[in-house]
């Protein structure tokens, strides 16, 4: 029986896009994901944090691409990203960013009731973010559910927006 059919029909179900960072599984609500694509060519940007890989042209939109493994310090020491990575385009009200992941993200439907609030001490460690929506336990899997709209600090958003917009404006003036 498929995972999604084990739960009662009345129960509220959410759809996640699940991907791996380091050895762990993470999920994002599907409505926060605009699209998933093979990572396009990335242009490095000066004076950005190391987890910001640069900017990319995604179907005519210039977006900042960030590496969550690096942001969360989850990449095993000395391990490089594979030659082909995937990017999830995350659309917020004021910006679109790309999240780089190493494997093809998978959709998963789960009942809202199995998402438990993250332990308080974990939320305290992420004082300014609160980007962990909860923890979903499904059989022997643990999936950390992220709220992507709370992932970046306001300062980081401003930094990425100004870089993306200025480079997009520069590209238009060259054409």
The helix/strand class is: alpha+beta
> What is the general shape?
globular
The major β-sheet equals: 6 strands, mixed
Proportion of strand residues: 35-45%
Extract low-pLDDT stretches. 164-175
Average of per-residue pLDDT values? 80
Q: What is the gist of this entry?
A:
With 175 residues, the protein is of the alpha+beta class. The chain has helices at residues 68-71, 120-125, 154-174, and strands at 13-21, 24-29, 33-38, 42-43, 52-58, 61-67, 86-91, 96-101, 106-111, 115-116, 132-138, 141-146.
Task: Write up this protein.
The chain has helices at residues 68-71, 120-125, 154-174, and strands spanning 13-21, 24-29, 33-38, 42-43, 52-58, 61-67, 86-91, 96-101, 106-111, 115-116, 132-138, 141-146. It is α+β, with helices and mostly antiparallel strands and 175 residues long. The strands form 2 sheets. Strands 9-1-2-12-11-10 form a 6-stranded mixed β-sheet, with no helix packed on it. The chain has a 6-stranded mixed β-sheet with strand order 3-7-8-6-5-4. A hairpin with an 8-residue loop joins strand 4 and strand 5 (52-58). The longest helix is centred in the last third of the chain and has 21 residues, at 154-174. Residues 164-175 have low confidence and may be disordered.
């Amino acid at each position: 029986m498929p995972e999604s059919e084990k739960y009662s029909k009345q129960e509220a179900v959410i759809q996640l896009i699940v991907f791996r960072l380091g050895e762990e599984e993470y999920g994002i609500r599907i409505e926060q994901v605009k699209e998933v694509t093979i990572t396009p060519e990335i242009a490095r940007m000066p004076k950005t944090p190391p987890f910001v890989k640069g900017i990319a042209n995604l179907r005519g939109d210039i977006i900042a691409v960030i590496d969550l493994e690096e942001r969360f310090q989850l990449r095993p020491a000395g391990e490089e990203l594979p030659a082909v990575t995937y990017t999830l385009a995350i659309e917020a009200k004021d910006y679109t960013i790309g999240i780089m992941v190493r494997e093809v993200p998978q959709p998963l439907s789960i009942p809202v009731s199995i998402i438990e609030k993250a332990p308080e001490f974990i939320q305290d460690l992420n004082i300014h973010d609160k980007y962990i929506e909860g923890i979903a336990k499904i059989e022997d899997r643990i999936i950390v559910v992220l709220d992507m709209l709370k992932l970046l600090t306001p300062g980081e958003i401003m930094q990425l927006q100004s870089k993306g917009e200025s480079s997009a404006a520069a590209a238009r003036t060259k054409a």
